[in-house]
Structure formats: C-alpha cells, structure tokens
Amino acid sequence: MIEITKDTIIGDILDIAPQTAPIFFSIGMHCLGCPSSRGETVEEACAVHGVDVEKLLAIVNEEANKSAK
Fold first, then answer.
1. I need a labelling partner for 31 at 20 to 30 A (CA). Which of 9, 17, 44, 67 fits?
2. Which residues, at least 6 apart from 15, have a Cβ–Cβ distance to it below 8 Å?
3. What is the rounded distance in angstroms from the CA atom of residue 39 to the CA atom of residue 58?
4. Tens-level pLDDT at each residue, the chain (69 residues)
C-alpha cells in the first residue's frame, strides 16, 4: 500500500503513482515536470495553490492505491 503524506515530494508521488497526475492538473498544479515538483512537498504545493491538503491527500491516496489493491 502506498502512503502519501503532506511531507511527500510531488515528484516522488509521480514516480510511484503516475496515474495521480490528472488530480494535480485538475487543481491547477500544471508544472508537474518543473524542477519545483522535484523538491516541493504536497503541503507546500497546496499552500501555493490554495488547496486543502487533507482533501487532496484523501483523493491522491485513493487513486494511488487503486491498482495496489
């Protein structure tokens, strides 16, 4: 099971669960390939984009673990 937390780096999420990319795009995180995503945590990205971190984590974790079940 994949566990993504507010401290997980966006780039690491995309490496282990690339199917989550559309979720990030849908909330305005369009620079998933930029250097920032390689060093930015979920919490930091949510703060910049005005997104509730807990809500995003619930959605991302659900999607990341669909194929892991």
1. 67
2. none
3. 21
4. 899 999 999 999 999 999 999 999 888 887 777 777 788 999 998 998 899 999 999 999 999 999 655
Residue 48 falls inside a structural domain: yes
Residue 41 backbone dihedrals phi, psi, to 5 degrees: -80, 165
Token pair for 50:
């005005």
pTM: predicted TM-score of the whole model, two decimal places? 0.86
What six digits make up the tokens of 30?
A: 């369009």
Q: Which domain holds residue 49?
A: 10-66
Structural domain count, the chain: 1
Q: Which two tokens stand for residue 9?
A: 């780096």
